[in-house]
């Protein structure tokens, strides 16, 4: 019996999508940022999921000619790699400092400052989305957007377990509903100032 395959195996680590890599020094170490496009265009910041980098995480999007041309036509893309996830990364020594998710979110601020970026659009996958969400909350997200639905959901997730928050099949508990109403009454600027005080 003869074996035939129409598939091709590709080592994603060896494919280059172009772009320029910058090694940004932060208070917690160096962060690799690969930049694609014209830096005068609005910024789109990406952050990959656990054990992935910008190529392996976003290949489906950026290998699609339609999406790629649309994104590169309208944005300059800044792919931030978590420590030890950049292409060709050496093993992290176990004695080295292990950053928390808050530390990783703080690194994003340092990266944006390095490039002189103000307002940015963010796109992350799973763990990367979580890090970018923390960054957004800590970076006056509430100041610019008020106590929007996403901010409320983030706070409710912080306050209550999954079981108490409910699901599609289980309704929210009374305490979660009461807290949701309370959050509706909060002034976003006041919440933002409290967050600023905690982050200083």
From TrEMBL:
Keyword Transmembrane: yes
Signal peptide: none
Pfam family, one: Ndr
Record keywords, A-Z: Membrane, Transmembrane, Transmembrane helix
Domain of life: Eukaryota
Ranges annotated as spanning the membrane: 114-145
PANTHER family noted in UniProt: N-MYC DOWNSTREAM REGULATED
Family: Belongs to the NDRG family.
Protein name: Pollen-specific protein SF21-like
């Amino acid at each position: 019996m003869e074996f035939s395959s129409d598939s091709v195996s590709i080592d994603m680590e060896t494919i280059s999508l172009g772009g320029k890599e910058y090694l940004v020094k932060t208070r917690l170490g160096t962060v690799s940022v690969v930049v694609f496009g014209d830096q005068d265009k609005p910024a789109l910041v990406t952050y990959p999921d656990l054990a992935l980098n910008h190529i392996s995480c976003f290949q489906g999007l950026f290998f699609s000619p339609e999406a790629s041309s649309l994104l590169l036509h309208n944005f300059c893309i800044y792919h931030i790699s978590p420590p030890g996830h950049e292409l060709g990364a050496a093993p992290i020594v176990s004695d080295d400092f292990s950053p928390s998710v808050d530390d990783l979110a703080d690194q994003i601020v340092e990266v944006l400052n390095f490039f002189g970026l103000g307002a940015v659009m963010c796109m992350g996958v799973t763990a990367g989305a979580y890090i970018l969400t923390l960054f957004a909350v800590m970076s006056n997200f509430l100041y610019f957007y008020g106590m929007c639905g996403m901010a409320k959901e983030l706070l409710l997730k912080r306050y209550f377990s999954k079981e108490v928050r409910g699901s599609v099949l289980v309704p929210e508990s009374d305490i979660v509903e009461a807290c949701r109403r309370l959050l509706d009454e909060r002034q976003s600027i006041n919440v933002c100032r409290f967050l600023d005080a905690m982050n200083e």
